[in-house]
Amino acid sequence: MSIVYDAAARTLTLHTRESSYQMQIGPLGHLLHTYYGRRAEGNFRSLHLLKDVGFSPVPHELDGETRGWSLDTLPQELSGANSGDFRLASLCAVTADGRRGAELRYVRHEIRRGKYALRGLPAAFDPDGEAETLSVILADEALGLEAELLYGVYESRDLITRAVRVTNRGSAPLRLEKAASCCLDLPFGDWDVLHFHGRHAMERQPERLPLPHGELRIASRRGESSHQHNPFLILCDRHTTEDAGDALGVMLVYSGSFELALEKDQMDAVRLTAGIQPEGFCWQLRPGESFDTPEALLCFGHEGLNALSQRFHRFLRQDLCRSRFSRAPRPVLLNNWEATYFDFDREKILALAREVKDLGADLLVLDDGWFGRRNDDRSSLGDWFVNEEKLRGGLAPLIRDVKAMGLQFGLWVEPEMVSEDSQLFRAHPDWALRLPGRQPMLSRSQLVLDLSRPDVYDWMFETLKGLLERYDIDYIKWDCNRSLTDLYSAALPAGRQGELAHRWVLGLYRVMERLTKAFPQVLFEGCAGGGGRFDAGILAYFPQIWCSDDTDPIERLTIQRGSCYGYPLSTVGAHVSASPNHQTGRHTPLDTRALVAMAGGFGYELDPGKLSEPEKQRIRRQIARFRELSELVREGDLFRLTELDDEKDYEAWQIVSPERDESLLSLVVTRPRANAKPLHLRLKGLDPAARYRIAEREIFDAFLPEGEWELPESWSGAALLYAGLTLPRMMGDYPSLRLHLKKTEE
Ligand code: DGJ
Questions:
Q1: How many CB atoms lie within 10 A of CB 661?
Q2: In the structure, which protein residues have their CB atom closer than 6 angstroms to any atom of ligand 1?
C-alpha cells in the first residue's frame, strides 16, 4: 500500500518510490501537514515545535495549556480563512447571515484502490491500475461546510495528485469565495522559485528567483491560462542544478484563470496555494451541493530539475492525456498559415498539397480563412460553413482531391469565438460575453461566446460534430485568439455571475470531452494565439499544443526549453518556417530550423513552392530523419545539458531512450565567437557500463576551420558521462549538430 494510516500516531502517509508525504490529525482535529520530501519512514510531527512566536492566536480549547499551538504557525493541509491563520488561505466560505471563513477539523478518512475522478474537470486517470486514493473529510460544523481532501498516489511515477470537493452540509445557502486545489506548507529550506512568464510569441520564459519574504503570485486573470504566466512552477533548493538537488513541481490541470500563490512568512516558512483565480470568483452552494476544484499535480525529487521534468513528462503522456495519439506516431504536417495567411484559394491549397506530397509529409492543414466571408481577421467567426468564393465547390471536393494525393487533411477552427460581423452574432447577440449597457471590449475584432450556457456549448459541440461527420478530417487545430473580458452572462442570475469564468472553462471541457470521445480517430492540436493555453487541462484531451506563434528557431530554443520543464516534447507543436523569419526577421539555416522543430511535434509552416530544389531535397531528408527519430523524441527522457544561468554561446539537449540503448544529442550555436573556447559537454542519462557508437553524425551549416573531427569508433557510457565530448569548433550563422548514439557490443 502506498497510503498508510497509523492509528496510534494519527498519521496518514503517502509513499511514492522516491518521496514521502505525511499529514497528522492534530489534538483538536486540525489536519496538519508534517512532511513532503525524499522518501523516509517515521512520524514527522516532532519536526514542528510548538513555539509561541508572539501574536499568533491559539484555539479556545487550548487556552491556558499552551501558547505555542497556533494555526498561524503550524503547517496545514488546507488552510482556512478567518481561522487564526494569517497566511494564505485555501478555502473561504460565507454563510447567508455573513459568517465568513473556514476552520476545518477531521471527521473521517478512507483509503481506496484506484483514482478518484472529478465532476466536469479533466483529471489524471489510472491506466496501469496502480493508483490509490485517500479521501479525508474535514468539516467546519459552525458554517455547515465540508471539505473532502482528495489525494491520488501514483507510487511508481512519484506523483501525487490533489483536489478538494467542497459540500454545503448546512440547511442554508453558502457562498464560496476561494477554493484552492491544494495548500502546501514547507516550513524548512532555502527555496528558489522557477516559473514561466512571457507574452504573445514569447511564452514560457524560465525565470528563477530566490523567494522573498511576503507574497508572490503567479497568476492569470485572462480567462485562459495565458501567454503571460503558466500554471506550473518549481520550487527548488537554492543549490539545485539540472542534475542534483531537491525540486518540487506543482502543476494545475486547469485552462482558465488561475493563481499559484507563494508566501514566505515571519519564520521563513513557505506556503503555496494553487487553484482557480480567486479574484472575481464566487460560487453559490445550495444545501447538499458540492463544488470540485481543479486537480493539482505534485512531484518531489532529489536528483535535480531534469529528473523532475522527466517525471512530469511520463505522467502527462501516460496518466493524463487520454488521446490515443499521446504515445503514437504523429503525422508530419504542413500548415498553410505562414505560407498564405488569408490569401488563398482552392488552386493555391492544391498546389501546396502537391508540394507537401512531393516533400514526403503526411498531412496538409488548412488554417484560418476557409469559412464564412473570412478574408481577414475582422469577420465570420461563428459561421463554420465554407467560404465558397475562396474554395469553389466547397470543402468536400478539396478534401477529396487532397486525399487522392495520398495525404491526410486537417482543418483550423476557433469555436469559442464570434465576430460581430457574422451570421451567428446577428442571430444570437446574447451568446457573447458582454455587460448590459456597455459596449464590450474587442480583441482581434472578436467577442467570446458564453460557454457557461448549455445552449451555447451544445451548439458548439453540434457544429464541430457536424463538420467532422460531413468531412473526412484527420486533424483539427483548435485556436482561441483572445482573452475573456466583460464577464457577464445573460443566462446567469445576479448572484451567480461570479461563477461565470469557471463555468466557461467547464463548458469548454464539456465540449472537448464529448468531441474527443466521439471522434477518437481525429488528432486535435490545441492553440491559443500560439501558446496562450499551454496547460495540462488542454493536454488531458489534446495530445499536442501549438507552442508559440514565434517560429524563429533561436527564440524557440528558450520557449521550448521553458515549456519542457513541465510538458513533454511530444506535446510541443513546432514547425520549420521561412527564413527570414516572419516574426523576428532573422535568417537561420534550414537544417537548424528543422533540428529545433524536431524537439517537438514536427511540421512545416512555409510555402515549399518558394524553395530551391536543393532546399526541397534537404526537407525530404529532414522528414525521413524525423520518422526515424520520432519514437525516441516522443518517448525518451529529455536532459537539458546547460544550466539556465550559464553564460553560454549554444543551447544543447539530449534525449535518451527508456532502455538507455539510444540517445540523441542536439546542439545549436547561438553566438559564434572569434577564437572560441573548446565546446565541451558531458553527456547524461547513458548506461555507464554500456558502449556507444555514433550511428549518425550530422553537422549542419557549420564551417569547420580546423578540418576533420576525429572521433573514436566507440566509447564506454562512463567515458561519455564523466569525461564527455569535445565538439568541433563550428562557425557561421546558427550552425547546429546532431549526434545519434547507439549501444554497441564492440
Ligand atoms: C493564431 C495561431 O497561433 C496561428 O498559428 C494561426 O492559426 C492564426 N491564429 C490564425 O488566425
A1: 15
A2: 337, 367-368, 412, 479, 481, 527, 529-530, 546, 549
